[in-house]
Amino acid sequence: MHPIQSDIATDSSDFQRQRDAFLARIAALKPRRAEATLGGNEKSRKLHKSRGQMLPRERIAALLDPGSPFLEIGHLAGADLYDGVPPGATIITGVGQVSGRACMLIVNDATVKGGTMFGMTTKRHTRAQLFAWQHRLPCITMVQSGGGFLPDLANIFPDEGQAGSIMYNQVKMSAEGIAQIALVHGPSTAGGAYIPSLCDEVVIIRNQGAMFLGSPQLVFAATGEVIDIEPLGGAEMHSRLSGVTDHMAENDAHALQITRNIVAHLGEAPCLRWTRTAVEAPRYDPQELLGLARMGDQPGGDCREIIARLADGSRFQEFKQLHGETLVCGFARIEGFEVGILAGNGLLTSQACAKGAHFIELCCQRDIPLLFLVDSPGFADSDQGDQRGVGKHGAKLLNAVANADVPKFTLIVGAAYGAAYHALCGRAFKPNALLMWPNARAAASRDAADEVAGALNWARHLWCDMVIDPAETRPALAQLLDVAGRTPARPTEFAVFRM
C-alpha cells in the first residue's frame, strides 16, 4: 500500500483564500456549539446550582472515565426552532466510556425550560437510543424533566419516533440484554417518570429526585388536596414503598458513583472484532483540509487529496483506479482501523456505480467497514451514449449500499445532491452515523437555497448526527469504529442485481 503523493501547493493564493473561507464557516459554527454546551441562561444555571445540584454537563464529566472523550450526537438539534431554547433541544446525548465500557448517555437539561420535552427532544432521544441499540451500548439516562411541552404535543405524543418510541425502545433493548440504567436527579413528571420506571436499575437522590405522573401542583388543581413532593413521589417513598427505585444516593456525586459501580458489574465488556494496528499520523497535515474542501458550487478537487490527510501514513490501496474515475474506491486505515473508502470525485457514471457495487461486495466478504466521503453533484445524464446504463448500474450501487451489513459511516465533505446523496449512503440508507463538515451542502437539487442545504439546517433537524471541524474527523471516526467493532459480525445478503 503506497502513500498518496499530494500535488497541492499549500502556499498558493488560491489555497489560502479557500482556507480563509473555510475558517469563516468554522468561526460561525463555534458560537452555536458554545450556546448548546452552555445550556440554560445564567439565572437558570445559578438556580440549579443553588439547590446543590451539578449542571448536566458537570454530571457527564464526573460519570465518564477520566480523560476519555465524549462523542456528542445531535449537539445542534433544534437550533432556532423554539423560542428561548438553545441548540440541543433540552437534552444531551452522546457516547462515552464509563468504567471501561462505551455507554450511551441521555441527559435531560433542566436548566432549559425545566428539561421539558419538545418534538425535537424526542427525536434526539430516540436517535440516541437507535444508535445504542445498533451498537449494543448500555443506556444511562439522567432524568430531571417536567415532561412534555404541551403546546408541542402533536410532535411529542402520537407518532413513531416520538415519546412512545422512547418507551418501546427501552423495553425492547432490555429484552435483548442491553442495560437500561436511570438516575433521577430532580423532579420528573409524566414521561419523565415513565422513563426511569422502565429501566433495569434506577438510582434516585434523597431530598432531590422525585417521580410522579402528576406533580403536587397538578394534584391540587384536580382535587384540592395539598401534598408534598416526598410522599407523592420522593426518593424515600420509591425506595421503601413502591420499589420503583433500586439505589438511593445522597447527592449527585454519590449517584454518579453508584452508576459507575452498576456499569462495572454488567458482565464482560465486548471485545474488538478487528485488529487495530498502531496509529500513524497522515503524511500531510489534516489542517490542510480547510484549503481543499469544496465551498459552495465551486468545482471540486481530487478526492485523493482529502484521503491523503485522513488516512494513516496517507496510504491508500486504490481499487480499479482507471475505471469509473468519478467514484474513487480503496482500502486505508484511520487511527489503526481498516476501512473501505468510497469517495465521490464527480458525477456518478455507469462505470462508477458498477465499480462501487463491486467494491462494497469485497468489503462485506472481508468484514471491512465502509466510509463514504461524499462530494457528488449527482448522477450523469442517461442520454449520453456511454451512460445509457446509468439507471441499471445506479440500482446496483443502491442495492449494495442498502444491503451491506458491515458498519457504514457517511461523511459529507462537499456537495451531496439528488439521488447521489442516497446512493452514497444518505440517512435513509441507515449509516451507523452521518457526519458533515461545516461547508457541506445536501439537497434534492443544486438549486436549493443555502439555508436549506447547509450543514446547520441538517443538524437542527437531526438529518445528520454531527457537524465537525475537519481536524476532528480522524478521532471522531476512530471512536465510532471502535464502538461498531464491538458488535458481532453479520453476513450480508444482497437483493437481485440487475445485470
TrEMBL record:
Q: Give a single Pfam family match.
A: Carboxyl_trans
GO term, biological process aspect, one: L-leucine catabolic process
Molecular-function GO terms, alphabetical? methylcrotonoyl-CoA carboxylase activity
A single cellular component GO annotation: methylcrotonoyl-CoA carboxylase complex
Q: Which domain of life is it from?
A: Bacteria
* Gene3D superfamilies in the cross-refs: 2-enoyl-CoA Hydratase, Chain A, domain 1 (3.90.226.10)
**Which positions fall inside the CoA carboxyltransferase C-terminal domain?**
285-499
Q: Where is the CoA carboxyltransferase N-terminal domain?
A: 22-278
Q: Which PANTHER family does this UniProt record tie to the protein?
A: ACETYL, PROPIONYL, PYRUVATE, AND GLUTACONYL CARBOXYLASE-RELATED, METHYLCROTONOYL-COA CARBOXYLASE BETA CHAIN, MITOCHONDRIAL
What protein name is recorded for this chain?
Answer: Methylcrotonoyl-CoA carboxylase
Q: Which organism is it from?
A: Caenimonas sedimenti
